[in-house]
Task: structure prediction
Amino acid sequence: MGRECVTVGEGEGGERLDRLLASHLAALSRTRLKRLVESGQVSLGGATITDPSMRVKPGQIFLIDVPAPIVDRPLPQAMALDIVFEDDHVIVLDKPAGLVVHPAPGNPDRTLVNALLAHCGESLSGIGGVKRPGIVHRLDKDTSGLMLVAKTERAHQALAAAFAAHSLTRAYLAIVKGVPSPRHGVIATRIGRSRTNRKKMAVLKTGGKEAITRYRVVEALGTKAAVIECRLATGRTHQIRVHLASIGHPLIGDPVYGRGRAAGLPAAAQGFRRQALHAWKLGFQHPATGQDLEFTSPLPPDIEALRMSLGGRQLDSPTPFG
Result:
């Protein structure tokens, strides 16, 4: 990014250096600036400063060398993306089932991150000094629906804080075996790695992390299945899948938490090839403008076909479950 110059004002004496720099350089987070100080990228009168807690004095002039963001290891790969909203700060997209979010062993490329690197190009300002998209939440490979991505470090910091404070709206639609009773409620447990299968998550009596899911039945499909809306108050790995299975209503098609539990369902449900879970609503405050934004996504064709095969009603609009 080049070199920045910050002069300490009369009313800023005694402030910590990292806080002072953050107040003057809005494009960089305090965490990033602290790292720049510690790595010797800040100088005063020709002397390198490495203490971010240094107390500044009025009239001091600090020079900050901000390296250009390095290219992250994943390579840009052009892929079709369903972009719902995009500006200079964020992207909202509708992820299809089958698309992995991050490169990982077994999925080294052709991921959402690869596609976003190609789509955004030079518009990414870099997250933590790395030219990459800021993934603030994830969806499992076979979960479809809305995702929020930051394009700048400031946006990433603000959205991560909003997720931590549970101030965003995240609503999912799922088709489950059976009809939960009561038809609305809260599932509050602790979730962590299974004691018997480390590849699975499980409800734990001790250990793990607090997990809270609010659910309601939005459509009973006879007595053998239902469409459920779930809203997350926490964001644990596989949370909805684990929670609904724990109350005896696993997601139809879930190969991990619903295996062997489709008996008695129609053939279309028994042969469904992924967990019937879709992130259908996403609401948040824009990190730059403060505007409240909300987006919805209709059920994808495969889940909608499953719903209809189980006796679902004809819908008046693509997103009638609000």
Q: What stands out?
A: Residues 153-164 form the longest helix (12 residues). Residues 2-66 form a domain with the Structural Genomics Hypothetical 15.5 Kd Protein In mrcA-pckA Intergenic Region; Chain A fold (CATH 3.10.290.10). Residues 103 and 209 are 26 Å apart (CA to CA).
